[in-house]
UniProtKB/TrEMBL annotation:
Organism the protein comes from: Paenarthrobacter sp. AMU7
MF annotations from Gene Ontology: oxidoreductase activity
Coiled coil segments of this chain: none
PANTHER family documented for this protein: DEHYDROGENASES, SHORT CHAIN, ESTRADIOL 17-BETA-DEHYDROGENASE 8-RELATED
UniProt cross-references to PROSITE patterns, sorted A to Z: ADH_SHORT
Protein known as: SDR family NAD(P)-dependent oxidoreductase
Length: 287
């Protein structure tokens, strides 16, 4: 991988922290920012994963470090964020991508599972923000970008802990945007939709289950991590300087209408009618 010659978002030299960067969407986010010339600090509880990532990014010409960081531990968070600021001389962009999924009906859900979900998905975000805020305030391009989820908009059965935690992130984002406005720091959240990852297992589901889920999308295809990363490039850039306190849905229009699959059914029906008409043999066409 090499750094793009034309850096359209003006992020070259900006210091970007990405939590949960060892795999999945977080890894793609880190790789994307590195390609656009940012100085990337990849943080994750899985140290080997982010160290390997950092080595790959450096091999491609980027400035990058990988640091161990457990977002459930304040001392771990403080040490990692301080190390980033010391290494690069500051922090411009914080991307809180780290998160976990907890499933189970309210009746079945253990208190410990609920607490674990909130400790990572909500309090973990708060911890990292608290540690990074002093540095982001000093930046001329301060950005905080928090991972929410489409579940914060429309939850699923059995997702009470996860959906509630992500809804909490949305409200936290709005409050933090208000608090950091005087320093010209923007704070936004993003809501990925159906992007296959190891955590959700969408791509491994039986075809019928996949079809049922895809039928809820206006753009009837699985999303890609790169499509999330592209949104974050915009939110981290000066092009988004007047956008703050928002939740941006990057879900392919999931449930934008009640039954988006009807449009695809209508298209298939129309295409079938055209094919039938084109292949009909009429008396005048017989030699």
């Amino acid at each position: 991988m090499t750094i793009d010659q034309a850096v359209q978002w003006g992020l070259r030299g900006r210091v970007v922290i990405v939590t949960g960067a060892a795999s999945g969407i977080g890894r793609v986010i880190a790789e994307t920012f590195a390609r656009h010339g940012a100085k990337v600090a990849a943080l994750d509880v899985f140290h080997d994963g982010v160290e390997n990532l950092a080595e790959e990014l450096r091999a491609g010409g980027a400035e990058a470090i990988g640091l161990s960081c457990d977002v459930t531990n304040q001392e771990s968070v403080r040490a990692a964020v301080t190390a980033v600021a010391d290494h690069f001389g500051g922090i411009d962009v914080l991307i809180n991508n780290a998160g976990i999924n907890v499933e189970g009906t309210v009746e079945e859900l253990e208190d410990s599972a609920w607490q674990r979900c909130f400790d990572v998905n909500v309090t973990g975000v708060v911890r990292v923000c608290k540690a990074a805020i002093p540095y982001v305030k000093e930046s001329n391009h301060g950005r905080v970008i928090n991972a929410a989820s489409f579940a914060a908009i429309v939850p699923s059965i059995g997702s009470a802990a996860y959906a509630a935690s992500k809804a909490a992130v949305v409200q936290f984002t709005k409050v933090l945007a208000g608090e950091l406005g005087p320093w010209n720091v923007t704070v936004n959240a993003y809501a990925p939709g159906m992007i296959p990852t190891g955590m959700n297992g969408f791509a491994e589901m039986p075809k019928e289950a996949q079809d049922r889920l895809l039928g809820t999308l206006t753009l009837r295809k699985w999303g890609e991590a790169a499509e999330v990363a592209d949104l974050l490039l915009f939110l981290a850039s000066d092009a988004s300087r007047y956008i703050t306190g928002t939740l941006i849905d990057v879900s392919g229009g999931k449930l934008a209408t009640q039954i988006p699959a009807k449009a695809y059914e209508a298209m298939a029906t129309a295409a079938g009618a055209e094919n039938t008409s084109a292949t009909q043999v009429t008396p005048s066409s017989i030699a």
